[in-house]
Design brief:
3-stranded antiparallel beta sheet; about 35% strand
């Protein structure tokens, strides 16, 4: 399942906050409670490249993820460049 880090700015009080979720959904302002704030930006966190013991591991949020990304390993690589290339191709 896709996983995103959503960035918000409140239309009422100008509060800035982030929230991770499986979609780019509206959120409630943690400062003033204004509802239905739409993300001003989102980062796709579905695939991540992590350094681990001299290797680079690509992890992916699976289709079964619901309330957290539940990352699963998709591949291990000797270089960060190879891992990033794999992630760019969608780790299929």
């Amino acid at each position: 399942m896709a996983w995103y880090l959503n960035h918000y700015e409140c239309y009422r009080c100008s509060e800035h906050w982030t929230d991770e979720w499986s979609c780019m959904c509206d959120d409630e302002c943690p400062n003033c409670g204004a509802r239905h704030a739409t993300p001003i930006d989102s980062e796709d966190l579905t695939l991540q490249v992590l350094a681990e013991a001299g290797e680079f591991v690509v992890v992916r949020s699976p289709d079964t993820a619901e309330h957290s990304p539940d990352y699963e390993e998709a591949g291990r690589f000797a270089s960060e460049a190879l891992a990033k290339r794999f992630a760019q191709l969608g780790a299929n």
